[in-house]
Fold this protein.
Amino acid sequence: MQYIILLGVAVFIVAGALMFLHRRRSDKAVNAPRTQALQLTPDSTAIRPTIDHPIAPKPSLPHAVVLGDSVQRPGVRIAPLSDEERFRAAKALPSDSGLGARLSAGLQAVPALLVEEGHRGKQLMEVVINGELIRAKDGVGLRAWAVGADNKISEHAKLFETNNLQNIVNAAAIWQVASVVVAQKHLADISAKLDDIRKGVQDVAHFLDEGRRAKATGTYEYLEQAVSAIAKGELSPSIRSELETCDRELIQIQHHLQQELERRCTQAIEHKEMAGTKDLEEESVAKYEKLNGLVKDIRLTLKTRALAWYVLSLYPGEPALKQAKMEGLLHSVDEVESRLQTIEANAEHDCQKFKSFWNKEETLAIRKANVRKAAQALASDLRDGTSRTKAEVKISHGSLLKHDQPTYLVFEVEDGHIGELRVAEPLPRPA
């Protein structure tokens, strides 16, 4: 019996020892560094250890690059375009504008930030331009960000510090190109206004002063140059500067014309007839008919000032100056309209001179009516000009606000070169 007990104790001790050794081996296997694995090579049955390096997660690429004061309201947003049909349906910009080369210089590094290395070659890109912010800035002091699909600064942007990204993406250059793209949409309106003014310039012989005539025609030529520069993809700083001179000279011409209208309108007509009022009627009617040329000059000056302001408004920046110039133009229109009262008052003053014992009352009434008719025709022509200028300024301002809506520029990039630039339609809003 004792032998049986001793044998059981011995078996228990051996089993415990075996379990202890097995547990220690298991713990060592778990706690051992997982840098080695066993690999069976095809040319040998030997088991060789191999290093198993952990694979670092690949950082996600940014969804877009934005330029502006903040990520939430960027002036320019650059991103890949996946909608090939939208690209095909987009309207091409003029091929001679030179925008492609200028845009390529500023954006050639952007596709590298946004597109996988293995997918480079040909890519479609989209640039969304906020017209309102474009004309409020000039590219100086802007910042560049890489953002994710949630429109927040991307984690991948840590690989591109803000200063480095700013150097890669020339914000000022892109901003200038974006401004020209926005201005391109106004060319049809500008061309129509130029054609309208051209007719008035051809009839500018009404000016009595050669200096005033030269200033008017010179301003028109500069506006033509400005339109030509915009059509070729350039907002010329020299023309921008010259627009200030043109505006100042047009204001001077307008003041001179208004003073001349006032002087000639209030100029008294001497009644030298011994009897009758026939000569007085002819001289009074001729007085207001001769002022028609002066009124046409005033209308032409106002119209040219309106177009000069419109062209100026296409340049980026200076929103307060543009607003002030528009208000000044409308104030000038009001000043011209005040001359309507002068015309009507002087017509009545001239009619009071029609007194003669020789003429019947019916004859005097007819002659007074003829003078009033000539004065009213003059006032009507002037009123029509001021009304048209007011409407044109308001329409132009509304057109500018409309074109402040985002512009969608799409293009193809191949090996870092920008292809044909196209303007795409805005994306439909979700219902």
User: Anything to note?
Assistant: Confidence is low (pLDDT under 50) at residues 1-15, 17-51.
